[in-house]
Amino acid sequence: MADIYISIGSNVEREKHFRAGLASLIAYFPKYRHSSVFESEAVGFKGRNFYNSVFYANTELSLAETCALLKELEKQHGRKASDKKFSPRTLDLDLLLYDTVICDTPAQLPRGEICTNAFVLQPLAELAPHLPHPCQGKTMAELWQAYDKSQQKLWKVEFSLL
């Protein structure tokens, strides 16, 4: 069994797609936890604000199978393979951590955005404060404490799955 952490984001009909994406993850990983939902400004492009959260589960799927599943779920929720990196998203599912695996394929792990984006690091630190980053030698809470919070605006939002 591997522990996985997945970043969830949406800024196109964000409440609808975020809720549907979370429900899809729960269908595959019924024993889960997820962070609070945060709203953040778009990074890298001008666009509507995002809803973001981090989802935790454990799985018997391989790393490659996990990555393929996340791509398929994005596709089912309107994401196109041709979408640019910095562009609006119906659903964005990024594998942040797969146990303590460090690799570049089939995904970059640990995901670089953990240390560079508040909308990834804050929910991850909330969900797993004592989890050590596989490369940094610090816990997620320590990384969040040291993060320059003036870089990106981020705030919690009330969100119910129901």
From TrEMBL:
| The protein's annotated pathway | Cofactor biosynthesis; tetrahydrofolate biosynthesis; 2-amino-4-hydroxy-6-hydroxymethyl-7,8-dihydropteridine diphosphate from 7,8-dihydroneopterin triphosphate: step 4/4
User: Which EC numbers does the record give?
Assistant: 2.7.6.3
Q: Which SUPFAM superfamilies match?
A: 6-hydroxymethyl-7,8-dihydropterin pyrophosphokinase, HPPK
This protein's record includes keyword Transferase: yes
Residues folding into a coiled coil are none
Keywords noted in UniProt: ATP-binding, Folate biosynthesis, Kinase, Nucleotide-binding, Transferase
Q: Which GO terms describe its molecular function?
A: 2-amino-4-hydroxy-6-hydroxymethyldihydropteridine diphosphokinase activity
Q: Which Pfam families match?
A: HPPK
Return the InterPro entries for the record.
Hppk, Hppk_sf
The chain positions of domain 7,8-dihydro-6-hydroxymethylpterin-pyrophosphokinase read 5-129
Q: What PANTHER family does the record point to?
A: 2-AMINO-4-HYDROXY-6-HYDROXYMETHYLDIHYDROPTERIDINE PYROPHOSPHOKINASE
Q: What is this protein called?
A: 2-amino-4-hydroxy-6-hydroxymethyldihydropteridine diphosphokinase
Q: Which organism is it from?
A: Pseudoalteromonas fenneropenaei
Gene behind this chain? Answer: folK
